[in-house]
Design brief:
Layout: E1 18-20, E2 23-24, H1 29-37, H2 40-57, E3 60-65, E4 68-73, E5 81-84, H3 85-109, H4 114-117, H5 124-127, E6 149-156, E7 162-168, H6 175-188, H7 192-195, H8 204-213, E8 225-228, H9 237-247, E9 250-252, E10 257-259, E11 265-269, E12 272-275, E13 278-281, H10 304-309, E14 314-316, H11 333-341, E15 348-349, E16 353-354, H12 358-366, E17 371-375, E18 385-386, H13 392-404, E19 409-413, E20 419-424, E21 427-436, E22 438-441, E23 445-447, E24 452-456, E25 470-473, E26 475-478
Parallel strand pairs: 5-26, 7-15, 8-9, 8-13, 13-14
Antiparallel strand pairs: 1-2, 3-4, 6-7, 6-22, 10-11, 11-12, 16-19, 17-18, 17-19, 20-21, 21-24, 22-23, 24-25
Helix pairs in contact: 2-6, 3-11
Domain Circularly permuted ATP-grasp type: 80-456
Organism: Cellvibrio fontiphilus
Pfam families: CP_ATPgrasp_2
Length: 481
């Protein structure tokens, strides 16, 4: 079955490829015409080619379930998403502005706390913050940067404007899939890369290496950098091994490292102990060091925090960075930008309600069936409720959770997420999407051209997380003629 864009209807949602039945957006016109020129058999052949490439390349992720951990092939849709470069340039500036302010905030919270003293952010928010680490108070990491790798989730509203849905500042994942999506698309549609001026994404591993190298406490042409993984059973293990391989650095587990009597970190090797300068850690704070956090952890390294606090090793992202990876703190980011940078935010937040505020909480409880309510520190789409899609019983149960712990919840209106076409049985149907660009900050800033587009593969669903049935697309930043 051929694609007929006249039969493609996204309803009242902003569609990123087709702006009206049969009418493509200017920047997507060539792509739409090309897809419509392919027969149903050709489209199916391209789809099977992508599936084979994903299987051959071993692109997978792990889903945790009651039946055990299940490895699945990466869900991918072959129709790319296009964003014009002129529009992306503004978004890029907004992302750099946002991460700069967030790092100023984290550094302030663990040192002078001026933003609290000036009553821009209330102090009580940190009394129950599960990601505030008192052990980090007084620490001053290189360049005042705590979150070196950030993945902020962006959505488009019904007017096509990018809004920031949330910031991921602890151990954001997904960049390896962005890079692999591009490789798969080049295999499936090599001819499209001849007719579109697409900004490449291949520089990310080098930029990540340079960012990490800039943090080294020792002056060296090539500092010793390692990627610290919890191991093969972690859901993001594919990414851990992929990034280590792409950067040309060692992938290690906690048992491969040791903190010696000089409070420096060393890696065990066949030639003996080798000093480590920078650790790109993919382990949560509380499992990093059994000496300072969870004493039962076998994933981390005893004494690692001691070595970091003494400035003998750099950790990215830094422990404690998660204090800003909080959906309640998220609501204050526009004020942080004004406070620390003296600028107006380039990117807007989604309107939000804090349940810790009684007046706002009353509004949320009275309008629960119209709102999306999220816990402050969950990720992956877990623990949230989409009011318009919930039953009366689910709403009543969730209301009790909010009343029991209002600090842990915030609410947002159900934004009309933009759509993009996916290929289903030889035809194109609209599905909701978001975007996770990756921003690096060390000595310099780097922003991925585009990022990981996540897709709610199920019709009508707003949930884009791969762990809950979502998929992904290649994202093209296209330079226009």
């Amino acid at each position: 079955m051929k694609i007929d864009w006249q039969d493609y209807h996204s309803g009242h949602f902003y569609d990123e490829l087709i702006r009206a039945p049969g009418e493509a957006r200017p920047e997507t016109r060539h792509l739409a015409q090309y897809l419509a020129s392919l027969s149903g058999a050709e489209l199916q052949e391209r789809k099977l080619s992508a599936e084979l490439a994903i299987k051959t390349m071993g692109i997978s992720f792990t889903v945790y379930s009651d039946a055990g951990n299940i490895d699945r092939e990466w869900p991918f849709d072959i129709i790319p998403r296009i964003i014009p470069q002129r529009e992306w340039q503004k978004t890029e500036r907004g992302l750099i502005q946002r991460l700069t302010a967030l790092n100023c905030f984290i550094n302030d919270i663990y040192n002078d706390q001026k933003i609290i003293k000036d009553r821009v952010v209330p102090a009580y928010l940190f009394e129950d913050s599960v990601n505030f680490r008192k052990e980090c108070i007084g620490m001053k990491p290189a360049y005042g940067v705590w979150s070196h790798i950030c993945g902020s989730d962006l959505i488009r509203d019904d007017k096509g404007e990018f809004l920031v849905l949330e910031d991921n500042l602890r151990v954001p994942s997904g960049v390896s899939y962005m890079l692999e999506n591009r490789k798969v698309t080049k295999r499936v549609f090599p001819e499209l890369f001849e007719n579109h001026n697409i900004v490449p994404v291949t520089e990310y591993p080098n930029q990540l290496f340079d960012t990490l190298a800039s943090l080294s406490p020792r002056q060296s042409e090539r500092p010793e950098i390692v990627v610290l993984t919890p191991g093969i059973y972690n859901s993001a293990y594919f990414e851990h091994s992929y990034l280590a391989q792409q950067m040309g650095v060692e992938l290690v587990e906690g048992s491969d490292l040791v903190v010696d009597s000089d409070d420096c970190v060393y890696m065990r090797s066949i030639d003996g102990l080798k000093r480590v300068d920078v650790i790109y850690r993919r382990i949560d704070d509380l499992f990093l060091d059994p000496e300072m956090f969870n004493p039962d952890s076998v994933l981390g390294v005893r004494g690692l925090m001691r070595a970091w606090l003494k400035g003998n090793v750099a950790l990215a992202n830094a422990p404690g960075a998660g204090v800003a990876d909080d959906k309640v703190i998220y609501t204050f980011v526009p004020e942080m930008i004004k406070y620390y940078l003296g600028e107006e935010p380039i990117l807007s937040n989604v309107p939000s309600y804090l349940c810790v505020d009684k007046k706002q909480c009353d509004y949320v409880l009275a309008n629960l069936d119209k709102l999306v309510v999220k816990p402050a520190n969950e990720s992956g789409g877990y623990g949230m409720i989409i009011g318009p899609q919930a039953s009366k019983k689910e709403l009543a149960e969730f209301a009790e959770r909010i009343k029991a712990n209002p600090r842990n919840y915030m609410a947002q209106p159900l934004i009309s997420l933009s759509t993009a076409p996916i290929l289903t049985n030889g035809n194109a149907e609209p599905r909701h999407i978001d975007l996770r660009p990756f921003v690096l900050q060390g000595r310099e800033h780097h922003v991925t051209p585009g990022g990981l587009t996540r897709v709610a593969m199920r019709k009508g669903s707003y949930v884009v997380n791969s762990s809950q049935g979502g998929g992904s697309k290649d994202t093209w930043i296209v330079v226009e003629d």
